[in-house]
Amino acid sequence: MAKVLIVDHSKSMRNTLRERLEYEGFTAEAVEDPRIASRLCHKIPFDLILSDTGSRIPDTDIPYIVLTPKGSIPSAVEAVRNGASDYLTCPIDMNRLLRSIHHLTDHPASEPQPSAPAPRRHPSRSGFRAEEIIGSSPQIERVKRLIDKVAPCEARVLITGENGTGKELVAHWMHAKSPRRDAPFVEVNCAAIPSELIESELFGHEKGAFTSAIKQRRGKFEQADGGTLFMDEIGDMSLSAQAKVLRALQERKICRVGSDKDIDVDVRVIAATNKNLREEIRRGNFREDLYHRIGVIIVRVPPLREHSADIPQLTRHFIRTLSSEYHRDEKEITPEAVEALSRMSWSGNIRELRNVIERLLVLSDERITLDDVHNYC
Fold first, then answer.
1. Which of 80, 121, 272, 294 is packed most tightly, with the most Cβ within 10 A?
2. Helices 335-343, 311-325: crossing angle, 10 deg rounding
């Protein structure tokens, strides 16, 4: 799948676009500064750039799509005249953006010029059994003990925590240490799927159920039968979908879109959210009865700022694993650089730390220094 670089001054926009593209199967990197983007483009063979700068990233000839505020259409049109492949106005129509990305990456305007082969990238996750939970702080040890205690039972689990804290990894280990470990582990990101498609994604659909339903499709509940269904960002699910999920949990049955036939399913649901669901209930955005169904056991994953003592260990782990993915020798990181990383706030938590370590590995010289941290973080 194509590699996409996101360049945007808005952190929330960068995170939203990256998460959606990764859900769709793309490899995505997100940065704020066009200068850092330019350096990355010389180290990583990106296929496409999404940019809010209105101009091509310096010293690159990579196709790019301009993302522009609603009132800036004339400047976007000018950007297209100057070489942009397309432009979209905010708020972004994600379906149109995906169509444009697929068109540009599946049908490039010209054949690429011969170049040195890029290092083969392995997937960041070879499976839940291969990914360990890094950290020895009291906060992380408590999470590990909860996993050991809760995983063997059939109780539904709600994992809470900020974005990037490792909720998905906790869910993986809940499954890996459960009696269902040899059955499917199926994931669905409720925030990344358009509301009009979430029911089809979860419960499947029959051929002809709607315009684009050209064949029958099994939903996530059926795919996870006998195993575990991980519903990430469940707090972003529509109320209508919540009602059907509640029925599926109560009756252990689902019904495909466009069908009136019930299908029995045996699924353990593990849910996760970065929202305060009690507050969402008060606002009328989340069903209280569903909350009590999914939240039999609640596991809170702490933000990185609450266990910053684990940052040196996490840093060494990411240097080791990312170096292996890039087929490069591990770089040394100076104690001053590690200390600087440990003092940072990390609003994006462990996911942000991993991205920064990858950036430092790509852009630094023989070793990662304090100056590299100041320049690229």
1. 272
2. 110
Alpha-carbon distances of 138 from 143, 161, 265, 351, rounded to whole Å? 9, 17, 38, 20
Q: In whole angstroms, how far apart are CA 50 and each of 4, 7, 13, 28, 314?
A: 7, 6, 11, 10, 30
- Helix, strand, coil % (nearest 5) of the chain? 45, 15, 40
Q: Which amino acid is at 51?
A: S
Q: Assess whether pLDDT exceeds 70 at residue 170.
A: yes
Q: Check: CB of residue 65 under 8 Å from CB of residue 86.
A: yes
54: which DSSP letter?
A: S
Bond before 114 cis per omega within 30 degrees:
no
Question: 163-200 burial string, b = 16+ CB within 10 Å, else e?
Answer: bbbbbbbbbbbbbbebebeebbbbbbbbbbbeeeebbb
Average pLDDT, the chain: 86
pLDDT of residue 78: 67
pLDDT score of 84: 79
Amino acid at 50: L
How do residues 360-372 score in pLDDT, each as one tens digit? 999 999 999 999 9
pLDDT digits (tens, 9 = 90+) for 135-154: 999 999 999 999 999 999 99
Query: How far apart are alpha carbons 294 and 29 in whole angstroms?
Result: 33
